[in-house]
TrEMBL record:
Residue ranges of every copy of the Amidohydrolase domain listed in the record: 47-488
PANTHER family per the UniProt record, alphabetical: IMIDAZOLONEPROPIONASE, PROTEIN LONG AFTER FAR-RED 3
Signal peptide start-end: none
Originating organism: Kribbella aluminosa
Top-level taxonomic group: Bacteria
Record Pfam families: Amidohydro_3
InterPro entries: Amidohydro_3, Metal-dep_hydrolase_composite, Metal_Hydrolase
Name assigned to this protein: Amidohydrolase YtcJ
């Protein structure tokens, strides 16, 4: 990255904006209008290009995202047996080096399967092999008998959910050399920069601040990173006096302290999202999903964090979990975030408009889960992924991917929020679509206009998004991405015209 001043020549300023020049000095927008480049300036020019605020991904699990790019992909499996065959086929081409190796696969979605996953299926096809298959939603992990034995765990089905899943995945990830994971993570963030992403919030279940300082020792990372804090690391964060938004020493100005993460319930595909109404198909005692933390404990932890300068971020997917999260924010009276808000009772929509509350949504989930929602949330899907209702109620929306649950591609997220379909089917609950300007603002972390003095976190694209169809918006190439005024990505075919 070059630290020299940058001039962007004859760019459209925002979607449907005027044609101007932009000068960047000391990592900020120094001038907008007519700019005469000076000797030593880096000049970028592409006829017809549109300059937008840099895009954010408000919810990423970076290590899992990076590792998932190297795991066996079973997303297309339509049954448990198909998932096992995909793993077996991959191992025929790439067998384990030794019996102690753990074979990692990713992406099973059993919300529509007629036969649930079971450890015996893995054992029949892969006897004695240590296999772990992570669900696409990250809320369940399917283990073979050999791996269960290695981990010292017993389970009737081999499918561990929620905190058991999180802990096993964390333990397996710790077996990888940190320097290898760091290299993979930095590769993944470079891929994010290629799609115009300038900032992420890392919700990995890990000591994120320490991990990112170590990664920064290799040089400035390609994106800004907000490092979340989970319960095991909360006391240390308080003792160190960490506050949400503070820069992290050693982070080259690109790493900052993020929010304190809490998980109220599970997920839709795992049928553990906590709902007011029962699931039509549910295990005894779980007809409404799972509440992972009750309201009083949530209030206690949110109060502890917020009183020490850490904004809470509460995972809530089911409508009852969202009611509880909103109750907790009302009782504590703090700033913070609700992550996902996938099912919201209409009576609760206006409560998301409280000052200082960000509603973090992942529109790609609405498209990938529409059939699962139709099956497991029958007669309630008008309130599922209710982006239109939340926006009309005054909520502050922020887009993300929840990578590796979805690919961190903000253009797909924007298109899904606006068009509510990603295939040939009609839009799903089009009344919950949001206008493109609102989606672009939510994808840019609330930035709508570029103003002199702003940090120069920018993305340059060849066309105005307002002119594009659903398909073209998804495929919109990125010409350049700038973070703090420095180029983090420049397209190979970028040329002066």
């Amino acid at each position: 990255m070059s630290a020299k001043p940058v001039v962007l020549r004859q760019v459209r300023l925002g979607s449907d904006g005027p044609i101007v020049d932009v000068r960047i000095v000391d990592n900020r927008l120094a001038a907008i209008g007519e700019v005469i480049p000076e000797t030593g300036d880096a000049v970028l020019y592409h006829r017809g290009a549109t300059l937008l605020p840099g895009l954010i991904d408000g919810h990423v699990h970076t290590a899992q995202w990076a590792e998932r790019r190297r795991r066996i992909d079973v997303q297309r499996a339509r049954s448990a047996s198909e998932a096992v065959e995909l793993v077996a086929a991959a191992l025929r081409d790439r067998p384990p080096v030794s019996a102690s190796d753990v074979v990692m696969a990713h992406g099973f979605r059993d919300g529509l399967w007629t036969t649930p996953p079971h450890k015996d299926l893995l054992e029949s096809a892969l006897p004695g092999v240590r296999v772990a298959v992570m669900s696409q939603d990250l809320h369940a992990i399917w283990l073979s008998p050999a791996l269960l034995q290695h981990l010292g765990r017993e389970d009737a089905t081999g499918v561990l959910r929620e905190q058991d899943c999180v802990q096993v995945n964390y333990d397996l990830s710790r077996d990888l050399p940190p320097e290898l994971v760091d290299r993979w993570v930095l590769e993944a963030t470079r891929a994010a920069a290629r799609r115009g992403i300038t900032s992420i919030i890392d919700f990995e279940y890990a000591d994120n601040r320490t991990d990112w300082v170590r990664r920064s020792e290799q040089g400035p990372v390609p994106v800004r990173v907000k490092t979340s804090i989970w319960r095991p690391w909360l006391d240390e964060a308080i003792e160190l006096g960490l506050h949400t938004g503070d820069p992290v020493p050693g982070g080259h100005g690109l790493i900052e302290v993020g929010p304190f993460k809490l998980v109220a319930d599970g997920s839709l595909n795992t049928r553990t999202a906590y709902c007011h109404d029962p699931y039509p198909e549910a295990a005894a005692g779980e007809r409404h999903g799972l509440l992972l933390i009750d309201e009083d404990e949530l209030v206690t932890l949110m109060t502890l964090a917020s009183s020490n300068g850490l904004d809470p971020a509460v995972h809530a997917i089911g409508d009852r979990a969202n009611t509880i999260a909103l109750n907790a924010f009302d009782r504590v009276g703090c700033r913070g975030r609700i992550e996902h808000a996938q099912l919201v009772r209409p009576a609760d929509a206006a409560r998301f408009a409280r000052p200082g509350l960000i509603t973090s949504i992942q529109p790609q989930h609405a498209m990938s889960d529409r059939d699962v929602a139709d099956r497991h949330w029958p007669d309630r899907t008008a309130a599922a992924f209710p982006y239109g209702s939340l926006l009309r109620a005054g909520a502050t929306l922020e887009l993300g991917s929840d990578a590796p649950v979805a690919e961190p591609d903000p253009w797909h997220a924007i298109a899904d929020a606006v068009h509510r379909t990603d295939d040939d089917r009609p839009p799903w609950h089009v009344e919950q679509a949001i206008p493109l300007p609102a989606a672009l603002k939510a994808a840019a972390g609330g930035r709508r206009q570029l103003i002199v003095g702003d940090p120069a976190d920018l993305v340059l694209v060849p066309e105005d998004p307002a002119t594009l169809s659903n398909a073209d918006l998804r495929a919109l190439p990125v010409l350049a991405t700038l973070v703090a005024g420095q180029v983090s990505f420049l397209a190979d075919d970028f040329g002066n015209e």
